[in-house]
Design a protein that fits this description.
alpha+beta; binds magnesium ion; single chain; binds adenosine-5'-triphosphate; nine-stranded mixed β-sheet
Length: about 425
């Protein structure tokens, strides 16, 4: 993409309404614009990152054996009356009435919808287990939308739902999602720690929130310091026994303030880390909470009716954009992990109008694209300083700079955005370096 043609409305000034770095940087880097409180338009570069995150989430769901589908954003209130949540959900639910005076709502989550689909389609114990997911916009009328996309009212969520015959099966599904979440967040360049979460009246130990430690996180968290060095499993066999992985990742103390037990934590002594965290995912087994009232049953081998065991598993896809920036930025701007960066390389023509520079840049731009490298080419008529500042702000992991001095010797300067290290290399070697 040529920057001269790209819709990338960067801002020099820090927007007054933004209180935290990720919100400031997303506005300044031209990634999003607020449409109304907690509701955002995604501009081209913001959308590119959102899609990359979504794709990593999708790949790890697929690897775990979950099947993608798509449910609507607008739901019928009747389903929620069946589960008893229509009244219980309260003012966070955006309620809508259609022209026939039917009560509808913009879905804050999809347990009722998926339970309805399941009960209409599956009948026998042989039909389970099933693990389904979708990636769809949600609406929650948050009392205090803030921090940009981190606490929006409209936001993109990946939500999965599992259906099993019994508790042992439910645990297998839960473990699949647990491990898939570890892998997903690691691929996004994040350290997300699974922390025990409140299971409410259902009880048990099958609810975990995944938190990324960050000063601007909204939750107070407590965990054993060893979690910070735990290694995420590779080459997972999702058909095998995942319990040892889950056991290891739940063997040490980790809890959010909601269920924090100060006595247990105190026993950790110096090993206790007290920090702030961003909730990026939440997995939850809720047993028959929806299947019983909504009559989602399968017949067992003896013909008896068994309400299915269910779980749901959410990831805040749009929140992750903010969380990644919170975890990876400096005073000059964003520092994208390679896995989600909107472009891998930023190519800077240092001297607009200089024939040798322009021709070398144009050729390199063409060759990089031919080699399948995503490149943003700053071909604008601007001063070198402004180009450097913009490139640092938008945070592409690599900057390739071609100026009048180097071009004479066929040399480009390559800068690593994360550590600032610069090396010179032959322009002719650049494509191979990044392809
Ligand atoms: P929070 O505690 O932050 O309000 P939640 O516990 O209400 O989140 P869940 O119902 O567990 O959220 O939804 C699954 C995931 O969706 C969360 O872990 C989070 O990553 C994301 N999410 C929830 N609310 C929002 C929001 N208002 N804006 C962006 N992402 C959100
Ligand atoms: Mg909430
Ligand atoms: Mg929460
Ligand atoms: Mg939650």
């Amino acid at each position: 993409m040529r920057l001269s043609a790209y819709f990338l409305p960067t801002l020099k000034e820090t927007p007054a309404e933004a209180q935290i770095a990720s919100h400031r940087l997303m506005l300044r880097a031209g990634m999003v614009r607020q449409a109304s409180a907690g509701i955002y338009s995604w501009l081209p570069m913001g959308l590119k990152v959102l899609k990359k995150i979504e794709q990593i989430v999708r790949e790890e769901q697929d690897a775990a054996g979950a099947q993608e589908m798509l449910m609507p954003t607008i739901q019928s209130a009747d389903l929620w009356r069946e589960s008893g949540r229509y009244d219980a959900y309260g003012p966070e639910m955006l309620r809508i009435r259609d022209r026939h005076q039917r009560d509808m709502l913009y879905g804050p989550t999809n347990e009722e919808q998926i339970t309805d689909i399941f009960r209409g389609a599956l009948r026998s114990y042989k039909d389970v287990p099933k693990l389904l997911y979708h990636i769809q916009w949600k609406f929650r009328d948050e009392i205090r939308p803030r921090f940009g996309v981190m606490r929006g009212r409209e936001f993109l969520m990946k939500d999965s739902y599992s259906f099993d015959l019994d508790n042992a099966g439910a645990r297998r599904s839960y473990n699949k999602m647990f491990v898939a979440y570890l892998r997903t967040f690691a691929r996004l360049g994040l350290k997300a720690i699974p922390m025990r979460a409140d299971t409410g009246p259902i009880g048990g130990d099958m609810s975990h929130e995944f938190l990324v430690l960050a000063e601007t996180g909204e939750s107070e968290v407590y965990c054993h310091k060893d979690f910070l060095d735990f290694e995420v499993p590779e080459d997972v066999d999702y058909d095998g026994d995942l319990q040892p992985i889950v056991d290891r990742w739940t063997s040490l103390y980790a809890a959010t303030d909601e269920i924090h037990d100060s006595e247990q934590a105190a026993a950790l002594g110096d090993d206790l880390v007290t920090a702030r965290g961003i909730e990026v995912g939440h997995i939850f087994n809720f047993s028959t909470k929806y299947s019983k009232p909504m009559n989602a049953v399968v017949t067992g081998s003896e013909g008896e009716e068994i309400p299915v065991e269910m779980g749901s598993y959410g990831i805040g896809v749009s929140r992750l954009v903010g969380a990644i920036i919170e975890a990876s930025h400096d005073d000059n701007g964003i520092i994208w992990p390679e896995s989600v960066t909107p472009f891998k390389v930023g190519l800077i023509n240092l001297r607009y109008g200089d024939e040798a520079c322009t021709s070398a840049c144009d050729t390199l731009y063409r060759d990089l694209r031919r080699a399948g490298v995503e490149v943003l080419y700053d071909d604008r008529d601007k001063k070198a300083g402004a180009k450097f500042a913009d490139m640092d702000l938008i945070g592409l992991p690599w900057q390739v700079v071609i100026g009048p001095r180097g071009v004479k010797n066929g040399i480009a300067e390559v800068k690593n955005r994360a550590d600032g290290e610069r090396i010179e290399m032959p322009i002719a070697a650049v494509v191979e370096r990044f392809a």
